[in-house]
Amino acid sequence: MRVKFDRDTCVGMYQCVAEWDAFEKNLNDGKADLRGSEEEDDDVFVVEVPDGEEFDAKFAARVCPVDAIEVYDDDGEQLV
What we know:
Elements: E1 2-6, H1 15-19, E2 23-26, E3 31-34, E4 38-41, E5 44-48, H2 54-63, E6 69-72
Antiparallel strand pairs: 1-5, 1-6, 2-3, 4-5
Protein name: Ferredoxin
GO molecular function, one term: metal ion binding
Keywords: Electron transport, Iron, Iron-sulfur, Metal-binding, Transport
């Protein structure tokens, strides 16, 4: 499972930070950062979800008010 995070879309509500430890506040930019991710495209970051953290990753995506977070299964199918 992997997460795709569009940081440009992020508005800094930080609801994802409260739901999954992989997200952290970046108060200088007023946006969240996805720890351990790689930049796939301009301001689009991806990271593999560690075992046991799938629920938290999905919940972080669901609570994002601007849908900046997407979750994909191992086959590339979007789950959230």
